[in-house]
């Protein structure tokens, strides 16, 4: 058994206000920090005010990155904008897209990348080259991606019609700061879709080919918390104690799949998001129950997994997930997502991301993917 995760975790109410002290472990007061935030109305939020006060002793350059599912073109533009100065630390405050951008910059800032094509090649070679990395801290404003606990970043490449993963084994966050205040204003639909994404991370980690006793323990803990407390959070979305619980569940799921990666559900979700705009968490959740049934014979200790879900069968898991999707205003059929029957071959053709589909415990065929997509249509 093997497990590794070097992220220093600070997970408590009020943790954000302590960010200056936390940052001082990697950056001296007065040194330069690159702060990447989600933009939009964030500058007017209480979280931004606390963040500004916490980092008052540093030379902070703040860059807004309001894009969801960032393209390699977008990150290349951000890199060109901020390079030319040395930063002792990067702080990412936002959802998965902000952290994906920050992770990529943490590796790319000290390179000679001069174009989108350069960055594309750099991402594709990420695991194979030694590079100087800038330490970064993740402060999630959604509870779902677990990105603050993993070493890879999702970068879309719409020109090439694919999803890339920048994966460098040393690009874990220096620290993760989990404060319920950061998620309390998260819209209900995003709260639900991101929590379901975390549940998928945990479930796919549980059955992945790289699963271990340690990762399964984190997986079951995350699933139990989401299954038990997400309905209560939906009913009381401003409850900070519930926000804290779901935030920790997302973190536990991140710790699980930081060592295992995800599997076929994520792989199939990528073209559904990239081509048809279905939010990532909802796209992943659509197939989770069906692929649980597909993988049933190869899942280690399936009864323990079902018990965490508080369900009797994969069909029951699917039913509960779909009930949550409807609570968030999401469609539970591909047709309802605006996907035509003629689009199913495109999804199938783009559903085999390396390191995801081939990480599934049961070999995945095009016929199996097509059958599940047709059943969901």
Characterise the protein shown here.
The chain is 47% helix and 11% strand. The mean pLDDT is 95. Strands 1-8-5-4-2-3 form a 6-stranded parallel β-sheet. Strands 6-7 form a two-stranded antiparallel sheet. By secondary structure, the protein is α/β, with parallel strands linked by helices.
Short description:
Helices cover 47% and strands 11% of the residues. The protein has 377 residues and is an alpha/beta fold.
| Helix vs. strand class | alpha/beta
Query: How much helicity do the residues have?
Result: 40-55%
Compute the average pLDDT.
95
Q: How does the major sheet shape up?
A: 6 strands, parallel
Strands in their spatial order, largest beta sheet: 1-8-5-4-2-3
* Strand runs, count: 8
Write the layout of secondary structure elements.
Layout lengths: L7 E4 L7 H5 L8 E6 L8 H9 L4 E6 L7 H11 L6 E6 L1 H13 L7 H9 L11 E5 L11 E6 L4 E6 L7 E4 L9 H20 L5 H23 L4 H21 L3 H13 L3 H16 L6 H8 L4 H14 L16 H6 L16 H11 L1
Features:
377 residues, alpha/beta, six-stranded parallel sheet, two-stranded antiparallel sheet, 8 strands, 11% strand
């Amino acid at each position: 058994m093997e497990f590794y995760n070097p992220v220093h975790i600070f997970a408590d109410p009020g943790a954000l206000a302590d960010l200056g002290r936390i940052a001082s472990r990697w950056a001296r007061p007065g040194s330069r920090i690159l702060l990447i935030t989600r933009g939009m109305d964030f500058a007017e939020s209480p979280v931004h005010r606390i963040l500004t006060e916490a980092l008052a002793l540093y030379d902070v350059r703040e860059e807004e990155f309001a894009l969801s599912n960032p393209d390699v073109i977008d990150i290349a533009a951000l890199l060109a904008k901020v390079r030319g100065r040395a930063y002792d630390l990067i702080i990412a405050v936002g959802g998965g897209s902000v952290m994906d951008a920050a992770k990529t910059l943490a590796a790319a800032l000290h390179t000679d990348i001069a174009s989108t094509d350069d960055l594309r090649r750099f991402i594709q070679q990420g695991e194979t080259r030694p590079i100087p990395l800038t330490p970064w801290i993740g402060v999630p404003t959604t509870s779902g991606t677990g990105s603050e606990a993993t070493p890879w970043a999702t970068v879309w490449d719409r020109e090439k019609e694919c999803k890339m993963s920048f994966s460098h084994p040393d690009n874990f966050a220096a620290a993760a700061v989990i404060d319920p205040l950061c998620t309390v204003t998260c819209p209900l639909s995003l709260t639900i879709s991101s929590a379901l994404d975390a549940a998928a991370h945990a479930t796919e980690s549980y059955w992945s080919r790289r699963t271990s006793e340690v990762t399964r323990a984190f997986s079951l803990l995350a699933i139990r918390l989401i299954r038990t407390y997400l309905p209560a959070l939906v009913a009381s979305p401003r409850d900070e104690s519930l926000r804290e619980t779901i935030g920790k569940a997302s973190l536990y799921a991140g710790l699980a799949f930081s060592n295992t990666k995800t599997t076929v559900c994520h792989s199939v979700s990528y073209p559904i998001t990239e081509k048809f705009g279905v939010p990532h968490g909802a796209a992943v959740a659509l197939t989770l129950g069906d692929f649980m049934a597909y993988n049933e014979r190869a899942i280690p200790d399936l009864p323990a997994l079902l018990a965490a879900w508080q369900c009797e069968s994969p069909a029951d898991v699917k039913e509960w997930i779909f009930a949550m999707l409807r609570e968030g205003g999401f469609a539970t059929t591909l047709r309802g997502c605006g996907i035509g029957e003629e689009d199913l071959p495109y999804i199938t053709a783009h559903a085999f991301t390396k390191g995801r589909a081939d990480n599934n415990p049961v070999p995945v065929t095009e016929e199996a993917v097509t059958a599940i997509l047709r059943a969901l249509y």
